[in-house]
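Hi all, a correction to my earlier message: I attached the wrong file for Protein trichome birefringence-like 43 isoform X1. Here's the right sequence:
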Amino acid sequence: MGSFAISSVVMVVVLVFYVFVETNGSVGGCDLFHGSWVLDESNSYPLYEISKCPFIEKEFDCINNGRPDQFYLKYRWQPTACNLPRFNGYDMLTRLRGKSILFVGDSLSLNQWQSLTCMLHTAVPQAEYTSLRNGDLSTFTFPSFDVKVKFSRNAFLVDTVSESIGRVLKLDSMEAGKFWEGNDILIFDSWHWWLHTGRKQPYVYRIRWDFIQEGNNTYRDMDRLVAYTKALRTWAKWIDDNVDPTKTRVFFQGVSPDHADGSQWGQSYPKSCEGQSRPLSGSNYPGGPHPAETALKGVLSSMTKAVYLLDITELSQLRKDGHPSVYGHGGHRDMDCSHWCLPGVPDTWNLLFYAALFQT
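and the right structure:
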């Protein structure tokens, strides 16, 4: 067989493999997202010490907020048919030299962004870094590698604008997309704030709304899963119309679950994540698939551009022990079963992100 023919075959194989990975979340035929949590009492876990990450938000710093148990730090995600590659922060920074990663989403995206900046910083502790915030954009830079890891707070992805009637959530408008252009890697997230209604809506002006609008129709409210799906379709169209896959890789974080209802995992008391110190055993979550994740997969499957789904939902559903609970701010002042302690579960999301970036 001639060299041209061999090259053509290789290119076809690579292309088929790339598409398989991007649409199925697999590496070498292994599903990274199906497995179980195993206790790892070696010195490998946690992946870093919180004392080495002075920039971690207080709400994620469960240890310094008084959390007494430590088991949640010692669990490692084990895919059923393979092993996750060991995270190498120096390797990641070297491969990403001259590039920028932009996380776009809500405080769960912030959770993952802070985890990654901490994992990278502790891998190269002597390397200079800068951390700046300008409005809703936070930028963590490693100047010696010319790498930027950025976070843009955008809870709904679609636009929320001020009009004469009040704040309007526009399900078919995405002017914010112009701020995403020019980055080498985009990783999106949205769901958490779609559930908030009435008084439960945040008082933060930029993510509070009074009406929902689609086209010429304005609504006081609508089914939130329906609204979320419509917004995702607007986002998907923007990606299909504006992203050049030869220049930019696109990821979606998946839906981060909460653990506010113990009946979802067969427990009547305590009724939430409070006091949980161990993950659920096995590979399947008793409460079944998350409806928002099902909606997300449906939208992604209809897209023309490849988006890699970090399918973190089920593996995170098993981690009822990983939330701050009463240790989000210290002093038992509130209950947080939505965000995650750091070190903790988002570190595994970034192990999967690392595998997806460089093992495909």
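Sorry for the mix-up. The mean pLDDT is 88.
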